[in-house]
């Protein structure tokens, strides 16, 4: 089945035009998209959109990223996109708690020839982040996990991020629910609090991109 546009403000027609004018996915990426919808259809919407993946590969290359961290790997599409953009010798540390979902990603990483660049750690993300050395600066981070954990992950990662390093945070528009004041669901409240905190944080500068379900781009000053 073909998924609905990830961006809630895109019509299927605009999405089709957008994808037609974006570097297309390759055979491995398409296999991973199809496999995710086949094996975990109920959660498949958690996978980032193809255009977001392309953006993340481009940004990784532009920043010459050598050390990256991902919190929330799911079936591995975003990790594949980041790993492909890493500078020579670069490494991506992935945090997740599901062997089942990430096993799909492992297959794709092997097929794409990037498995040797990815260090997947199956454990609560906060434990993994606290174990990362403070004296080995991170170039780029992608947050796409439990929304109630975003603030804690951010505070663990920001001190480890190099100056001019970047944090990408997914789902920050939350299909528009973040600005619906009548919505008091736990994840919505957590994202609203996170967005407010980042906007006021003098340690960084940031913007929310209308990409996917809202992607916040944060630069450490």
Structural overview:
It is built from eight helices and seven strands; from the N terminus they run αααβαβαβαβαβαββ. The chain is α/β, with parallel strands linked by helices and 221 residues long. The chain has one domain: Rossmann fold. The chain has a seven-stranded mixed beta sheet, sandwiched between helices. β6 and β7 form a beta hairpin. α3 (50-62) runs parallel beside α4 (77-85) and α6 runs parallel beside α7. The longest helix is centred in the C-terminal third of the chain and has 15 residues, at 186-200. The chain is globular, with a radius of gyration of 16 Å. The N and C termini lie far apart (43 Å).
CATH superfamily: Vaccinia Virus protein VP39
What's the CATH architecture name?
3-Layer(aba) Sandwich
Q: Name the shape in a single word.
A: globular
Q: Determine the mean pLDDT.
A: 96
Strands of the widest sheet, in order across it, are: 3-2-1-4-5-7-6
SSE order in H/E notation?
HHHEHEHEHEHEHEE
Protein topology:
Blueprint: H1 12-20, H2 27-39, H3 50-62, E1 67-71, H4 77-85, E2 91-96, H5 99-112, E3 118-122, H6 125-131, E4 138-143, H7 150-157, E5 161-170, H8 186-200, E6 204-209, E7 215-220
Parallel strand pairs: 1-2, 1-4, 2-3, 4-5
Antiparallel strand pairs: 5-7, 6-7
Helix pairs in contact: 2-5, 3-4, 6-7
């Amino acid at each position: 089945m073909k998924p609905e546009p990830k961006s809630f403000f895109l019509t299927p027609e605009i999405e089709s035009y957008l994808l037609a004018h974006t570097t297309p996915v390759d055979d491995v990426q398409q296999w991973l998209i199809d496999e995710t919808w086949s094996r975990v259809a109920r959660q498949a919407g958690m996978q980032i959109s193809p255009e977001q993946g392309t953006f993340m590969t481009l940004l990784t290359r532009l920043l010459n990223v050598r050390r990256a961290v991902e919190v929330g790997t799911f079936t591995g599409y975003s990790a594949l996109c980041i790993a492909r953009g890493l500078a020579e010798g670069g490494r991506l540390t992935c945090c997740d708690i599901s062997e089942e979902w990430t096993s799909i990603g492992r297959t794709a990483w092997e097929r794409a020839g990037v498995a040797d660049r990815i260090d997947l750690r199956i454990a609560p993300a906060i434990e993994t982040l606290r174990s990362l050395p403070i004296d080995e600066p991170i170039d780029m981070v992608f947050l796409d996990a439990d929304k109630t954990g975003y603030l804690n992950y951010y505070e663990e990662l920001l001190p480890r991020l190099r100056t001019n390093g970047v944090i990408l945070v997914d789902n920050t528009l939350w299909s528009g629910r973040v600005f619906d004041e009548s919505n008091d669901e736990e994840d919505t409240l957590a994202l609203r609090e996170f967005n407010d905190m980042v906007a006021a944080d003098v340690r960084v500068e940031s913007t929310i991109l209308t990409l996917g379900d809202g992607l916040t781009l944060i630069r450490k000053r």
